[in-house]
Design goal:
Signal peptide: 1-19
Number of domains: 2
Helix content: under 10%
GO molecular function: aspartic-type endopeptidase activity
Largest sheet: 10 strands, mixed
Pfam family, one: Asp
Domain Peptidase A1: 59-375
Number of helices: 4
InterPro entries: Aspartic_peptidase_A1, Aspartic_peptidase_AS, PEPTIDASE_A1, Peptidase_aspartic_dom_sf
CATH topology of the largest domain: Cathepsin D, subunit A, domain 1
Length: 380
């Protein structure tokens, strides 16, 4: 989920203490990434589909912070690692449903960053703030000592200000330029991890069940089939700062390109829906008989076969420029009668690839170039 920062920054400060010791053996690490859905969602136990809820969760991983386990969500749309903590009020701690709260007083590796704080607000109105600190962060064996992170002492919910959290916080895997620690922005987990791994990449194979994973520091050629498509990432362009964003995607189906203007597309694993323009949605649902549209919320007759959807990346630097996802990935539920919704929704401005794209592709996120490569998952 993209964060909204009140102050534009261009400086990324990486602490000298993060340099890897000389002679270290660099190795890649695979960590399990389980799908979660908000506790308020209606979930089909057989298919894992989420009904009538476009805040349909994402992927979570167990993380050791100073040896204490917390549950964080993987978010390529933000750039902070922060966690709920015992610095929060007891009432706020009670709204975190994981049952895991980080306690800095119980860690021998916790170091305060005097004068440094973090403060985040997300697009849905929620947010978090508190002191920044250094700590040993371990994700499935991928370990960074003295990693800068946020220790939440104030948790904010959108809407009427009440709510609950199904995770302790995020692992932000965007770019450090959008890190919220002040007065100096810090490295993201992947940027901090770079000295310890063979390549400056992480790779994802997200699933709708608990068999997904993230590879830190390498890509696995056996995890995908066919040719990789590689696209440039416009993470420094106006409006896309710090984001995994591609400029100028088009859409189509069955080899035909929709008559709709190209627009920018985010690859934000913290946002569930495939977000497209009104023209793209109209062209797609026009291929299905019996669809209806209410203020950009499209429905189709349950039981109908949804056509495959083509993404056209005209400025791809290698591989096929047209990438297809199965229409079945767009289904939100599996009812056979009545009207059904999908994971596609209508937005103005930038779109988002969403769950339908992520669950069909093995994705290699190269933050050094930067570029994004993907091909069909081999085990789908």
């Amino acid at each position: 989920m993209a964060a909204i920062l009140s102050t534009a920054v261009s400086l990324l400060l990486v602490s000298e203490s993060l340099a890897a010791p000389s002679g270290i053996q660099k190795r890649g690490i695979r960590s399990a990434a389980h799908r979660y859905v908000p506790s308020r969602a209606a979930v089909d136990n057989e298919t894992g589909a989420v009904y009538n809820n476009f805040d349909g969760g994402g992927w979570i991983i167990p993380v050791l912070i100073g040896g204490q386990q917390v549950t964080l969500n993987l978010d390529t749309g933000s750039s902070d690692l922060w966690t709920a903590s015992t610095l929060m009020s007891s009432d706020s701690q009670a709204t975190v449903t994981t049952g895991e709260i980080y306690d800095p007083s119980n860690s021998s590796t916790y170091q305060a960053m005097d004068g440094s704080t973090f403060d985040l607000e997300y697009a849905d109105g929620s947010g978090a703030s508190g002191p920044a600190a250094l700590e040993t962060i371990n994700i499935g064996g991928a370990t960074v000592p003295n990693m800068p992170f946020g220790v939440c002492d104030t948790l904010k919910y959108g809407g009427d200000g009440t709510g609950t959290r199904d995770t302790d916080g995020p692992v932000g895997l965007g770019f450090g330029v959008e890190n919220s620690i002040r007065p100096n922005p810090q490295c993201t987990f992947m940027e901090c991890l770079e000295p310890y791994v063979p390549e400056p990449v992480f790779s994802t194979s997200f699933k709708t069940n608990n068999s997904g994973y993230i590879d830190f520091g390498y890509s696995d050629s056996s995890a995908y089939s066919g040719d990789l498509t590689t696209i440039p990432i416009a993470n420094t362009s106006s409006g896309n700062e710090g984001q995994w964003a591609y400029q100028g995607v088009q859409f189509g189906s069955g080899g035909n390109v929709f008559d709709a203007a190209a627009f920018d597309l985010d690859f934000d694993s913290g946002t569930s829906s495939l977000s497209v323009s009104a023209d793209v949605a109209s062209a797609y649902f026009g291929l299905i008989q019996g669809t209806s549209n209410s203020s950009g919320s499209w429905q189709y007759p349950c039981g109908s076969t949804l056509p495959d959807l083509d993404f056209i990346f005209s400025s791809a630097t290698s591989g096929p420029t047209t990438v297809t996802i199965p229409g079945a990935n767009l289904k939100n539920g599996d009812a056979s009668t009545g009207d059904c919704g999908t994971w596609m929704n209508v937005v103005t401005g930038r779109g988002n690839a969403g769950i339908p794209f992520y669950i069909s592709k093995y994705m290699i996120w190269n933050q050094a170039v930067p570029e994004l490569s993907f091909a069909d998952q081999a085990d789908n």
